[in-house]
Amino acid sequence: MESGAHIRLILWKAAKAVEKVDRKSIARTGLKLTDFQIMEVLLHKGPLPINTIAGKVLLTSGSMTAAVNRLVRKGHVKRVQDPSDGRCFHVHLTASGRRIIQRAYDGHSQNLELIAGVLTAAERQELVRLLKKLGRGAEQMA
């Protein structure tokens, strides 16, 4: 039976290897990592408040504000005031931002598919099931 320490080591090594390919793939899109992450969230989730995006991409409030300001200057996103709460702003992709992230995400997604290509469909399902089980168990302990 594999020890918990060995499982953690294998999980860490696999995550680092996937992350290395992931970062190279994102770098080839011409976008900064944080810009890609923010735009990808907006592509798949639609307009969101800045603090909701920050939680999804694991950025601090200051880093998130700087990144959104950068994306606004580039014309990739815009801030829209919430009509029901004037203190809240939602971040929206612009038309050009949507085209940029869609093209970038499509290429990036293909690279991630190549990584997962070493697994059969059944292995993918089993891996996802086991990782979720491991994650839930760790969350309960935390």
Characterization of this structure:
By secondary structure, the protein is mainly alpha-helical. It has a single domain, classed as Winged helix-like DNA-binding domain superfamily/Winged helix DNA-binding domain (Arc Repressor Mutant, subunit A, Orthogonal Bundle). Helix content is 71%, strand content 12%. It is built from 6 helices and 3 strands. It has a 3-stranded antiparallel sheet. A hairpin with a 2-residue loop joins strand 2 (77-82) and strand 3 (85-93). Helix 2 packs across helix 3 (50-57), helix 2 (33-45) crosses helix 5 (95-116) and helix 3 packs across helix 4. It is globular and about 55 Å long. The chain starts with a helix and ends with a helix.
Comma- or semicolon-separated keywords:
mainly alpha, Arc Repressor Mutant, subunit A, 71% helix, 142 residues
Percentage of β-strand residues: 5-15%
Mean pLDDT: 93
Describe the sheet with the most strands: 3 strands, antiparallel
In the CATH hierarchy, what is the class?
A: Mainly Alpha
Count of alpha/pi helices: 6
Low-confidence stretches: none
Number of domains: 1
The helix-strand sequence is HHEHHEEHH
E-strand count: 3
According to CATH, what is the topology? Arc Repressor Mutant, subunit A
CA radius of gyration is 18 Å
> Strands across the major sheet, in which order?
1-3-2
Overall geometry comes to: globular
Instruction: Report, as a whole number of angstroms, the end-to-end distance.
Output: 24 Å
User: What is the SS-derived class?
Assistant: mainly alpha
Helical percent range?
over 70%
What oligomeric state do the depicted chains represent?
Answer: single chain
CATH superfamily: Winged helix-like DNA-binding domain superfamily/Winged helix DNA-binding domain
Mind telling me which CATH architecture this is?
Orthogonal Bundle
